[in-house]
Description:
It is a single chain. By secondary structure, this protein is an alpha+beta fold. It contains seven helices and eleven strands. The strands form three sheets. A five-stranded antiparallel sheet has the order 1-2-3-4-5. Strands 6-7-8 form a three-stranded antiparallel sheet. A three-stranded parallel sheet has the order 9-10-11, with no helix packed on it. Strand 9 (226-228), helix 6 and strand 10 form a beta-alpha-beta unit. The longest helix has 15 residues, at 121-135. The radius of gyration is 23 Å and the shape is elongated. Residues 283-287 have low confidence and may be disordered.
Amino acid sequence: xxxxxxxxxxxxxxxxxxxxxxxxxxxxxxxxxxxxxxxxxxxxxxxxxxxxxxxxxxxxxxxxxxxxxxxxxxxxxxxxxxxxxxxxxxxxxxxxxxxxxxxxxxxxxxxxxxxxxxxxxxxxxxxxxxxxxxxxxxxxxxxxxxxxxxxxxxxxxxxxxxxxxxxxxxxxxxxxxxxxxxxxxxxxxxxxxxxxxxxxxxxxxxxxxxxxxxxxxxxxxxxxxxxxxxxxxxxxxxxxxxxxxxxxxxxxxxxxxxxxxxxxxxxxxxxxxxxxxxxxxxxxxxxxx
Length: 289
């Protein structure tokens, strides 16, 4: 089965040429798309996603494999926030994206006749993702340094931590996390009171200015492996530090700490209860307050 390109492959930035039935490149793209959709289940893939810069996509709907030359979306309806969306080019990365539940895809058949398809549900979302790759050479501009570091990491614990943070921030609203918009998440304490806001697309960069300054001091101390966070409201800063520094442990007071938020982000192993008076060699060395 033909694999789709990664989001950072420079071939995705090529401007696709118009698809023509008599064009050899279009014929190659049709064969590759057919191979990529040979497996079970519905799906939609465009030729540039396979490294062929031509305006062509194919979709599998049931037993039917349909090629659409020079496709576009003529109508979109029922716009909604598609939560925790993933796509082949970015692997396990989740994000919230505005999508239409129903679309009309138009173009031409390989024989030249016009084609119009009404799509809904997951197939409509897959078609929107494919059209994005066709029409927008910056289709992955939303990928942040946090995502790139995660996807390039070879260390299993580092990848596991980034995945836990990303997935925890993209779960449906609950007691520990509350979605504010398509990328900002309000973190709650165990009593339901708001603590701070985390950028779900780039949790390694705090939203608050003071937290960014503190993070700059922390990252400048390359040998630092332990941090004491005194106030629950500093949890977004702690999450940012954990997303950036491999092997970091965050120490916190025994009471008042948002345990539900820690569990939602699957970061329990990265936090330890401590006091400033601890004499243990592993005690924290820097305290934002």
